[in-house]
Amino acid sequence: MGENESSVRSLCQQDKNMAYQKVNADQRAQGHSPYLDNDELQATALELEWDMEKELEEPGFDHFRLDGAVQHHLGNSQSPDLDLEPIQPSSSPKGRFQRLQEDPDYVSHYTRQAPKSNRCSFFQILKVFCTALILFIFGIVMGYYALKKCPSPLTSQERNNPHVYHEILKEIKAENIKQIYRDLLQFPGEDDVDVAMKILVQWSSQGLEDARLVNYSVLLDLPGSSSNTVTLKNSGECFYPSGQQCNRETKTLHNQDLLYSYAAYSAKGTLEAELVDIQYGTTEDLIRIQAITNVTKKIALLKLGQSPLLYKLSLLEDAGFGGVLLYIDPCDLPKTTDLDDKAFMVSLNSGGDPSTPGYASIDGSYRQNRLNLTTLLVQPISAVLAKKLVSLPEDTVQKDSCIPLQLPATGKKVISLNIQSVSTYKTISNVIGYLKGTVFPDRYIIIGSHHNSLNTYGGQEWASSTAIITAFIQALMLKVKRGWRPDRTIVFCSWGGTSFGNIGSYEWAEDLKRVLQRNVVAYISLHNPVRGNSTLHPVASPSLQQLAAESQSFNCVEKTRCPGSNVSSVQIQGDSDYFINHLGVPAMQFSYEDIKSSENPSFLSEALFPVHTTKTEELDPTFSLHETIAKLTGQVTLQIANEPVLPFNALDIALEVQNSLKGEEVDIPQLLTVASHLRDTAELFQSDEMRPANDPKERAPIRVRMLNDVLQSLEKSFLVHQVPPGLYRNILYRLDERTSQFSVLLKALEQCKLHQSNETIQAALSEVLNSINSAQVYFKAGLDVFETTLAGKK
């Protein structure tokens, strides 16, 4: 027994000396690190441990398990070559053999059970696993309830589902619009900024997350402290524009109505001259008058209607007139209206801030001195005053017939016209709100209404339009809160300064012109949506006519009023002007009018009458017409904002061009030829490239984006550079329902008759020819790009 123990000790001593040399050398090299990093040394230590374990397991070595082993400490080592820190029990071979090296008499209570550190590691791992499992289960539960409360965003197909449109539109209710309307009318007499701020608060309260005020300092032409007057020199009688005598008590009169019966941006001063009746101021009227009298510095008695006011005034200015009395013939008004004794306001501003023509009125902009936009002294008057001037009794309406007003051929009337107004810079505010799209956030559908603070002037249509757009925002945001969003961005706008020449919309669009040229897809107008209650009157760009017609079948509150509403492309009033004529953006507008309006002379809506708060509720007491307009507007907006392929019709543009060239006046072979080529190309484009609109399998993202870019810019080719005042630069829009030819060509023909020169008509023909050819080239280029792209993919 002693011999065996001696041999074993000898053998262990040799092995420990070898291990000591290796461990000691490694510790010196590694700065006395408690671990060996060399792979060879680790392997050697493992082999030594394995051999030692096997030897200790042999029979007869059980008595080496001494209790005194637990009293061993590495820190008590007397070896001069080692300077080791105390080493705690370790499962690694290195730790165990370092302990053996410290004391030759050390004997371990070695057993086959796992070391204590392994047991600790196991419990730690178990603890971590249990914690992770609990957190995982907790996360699943929280996620489940979060998804129930906040539903996941809808897919593109779900966003485009007509059922989603129906859910949104059913939230638009007449009673809500009526309440919003009445709330808006609680702001009388406040300036533009205050009214805009309250609209902003309303929109924000509905949940529109990105709404802001955009202010511009602009030049406004406001009425003076006293009313303008018209004096008959023969009798010495003085009249206000309404027809009431100047010396009559005016306490019972609407003082603001008197002050705001004026033409903004008219020339100012006093003019005494002969009154000349020129009826509607057509070229035929001017030719007839100039043949019998010299019109220089005389005052024209002019009826509003048939042509744009700015166009007629430009003819009168060129002819040499000095002043104009402007009125509406009672025979041109619907019988239901009672406006004979009311004067009105007009603006002679073609658009935007007159002091910054063509650029935005931002801080630092150069301000031009343009206090008057015409040399004419222009004054609107009531039909009652017009009758007094032509010496007719006031009751000229007889049962079923109406006698148009006309100045007697005999006798000469001299009048004195006194006009005073004040030009000053004021701040006007636009309210702009964004509902960002998810798929094409850089493509905008703009919906525009306007607000007015002219002391009830211009009627209450501003409150009607603002109430409708606010109700639509309210319905949309209810759906947004449930996870829905449009594919394209919808921009809501309430414009300021509309009565003075669409100033707010012009300034904002000029400010953002580069962005809007690239991003705006369509403009939906809510200008004066309920001006009658007899018939629905939809107006749309040629590319949107089909969409406007289809939308009427989906949203009709009173079905009997919906069928037979023809969609036309005619000039309209309001803030769509800049978007149609400077950006070439497709536009649409729905409104209710009186049934006789389509038979009356056009452009009567240029007059802003002082209609008071009861008028709108008389026209639509239940606000069902407002609800219809809101739903029609909402329907087309949602379709344009969400359809993968824009719902624009290229072929309708080509057909409109061909229809506008019919007639003997413009029978030019070159025009007809290029228009035919445009139709052929449009037909090919419509049949071949519009397949993605009907077949989802054809909707490769790059193809859809390219196709939409082409459709978005269809109308930009039809913007001509030079047009007479008051006419649209976008030649796709006709003057009115009764004319089918291009308005720029019709007016050029009139100028040709008036000046006995064909220079104007030749210039107009060249403009139209270049526009049609440009559109045909644009279509063809789009087709070529598609063919190249598809060939490359194959």
List the helices and strands and how they pair.
Blueprint: H1 2-29, H2 39-56, H3 93-102, H4 116-149, H5 156-159, H6 162-169, H7 174-184, H8 192-205, E1 210-223, E2 229-232, E3 238-239, H9 255-259, E4 263-264, E5 269-277, H10 283-292, E6 299-303, H11 309-319, E7 323-327, E8 346-347, E9 377-380, H12 383-389, E10 397-398, E11 401-402, E12 414-419, E13 421-435, E14 440-450, H13 461-480, E15 488-495, H14 503-511, H15 513-519, E16 520-525, E17 535-540, H16 545-552, H17 577-581, E18 587-593, H18 614-619, H19 624-642, H20 650-660, H21 669-689, H22 691-694, H23 701-712, H24 743-755, H25 759-793
Parallel strand pairs: 4-8, 5-6, 6-7, 7-9, 14-15, 14-16, 16-18
Antiparallel strand pairs: 1-13, 2-3, 2-12, 5-12, 10-11, 13-15, 17-18
Helix pairs in contact: 1-2, 1-3, 2-3, 7-13, 10-24, 13-19, 20-21, 21-25, 23-25, 24-25
Protein name: N-acetylated alpha-linked acidic dipeptidase like 2
Domain Peptidase M28: 430-594
Transmembrane segments: 125-147
What features would you describe in this structure?
This protein is 42% helix and 14% strand. The protein contains 25 helices and 18 strands. The longest helix has 35 residues, at 759-793. It has a seven-stranded mixed beta sheet with strand order 1-13-15-14-16-18-17, with helices on both faces. Residues 1-13 and 15-116 have low confidence and may be disordered. It has 794 residues and is of the alpha/beta class. Pfam families: Peptidase_M28 (PF04389). It comes from Falco tinnunculus.
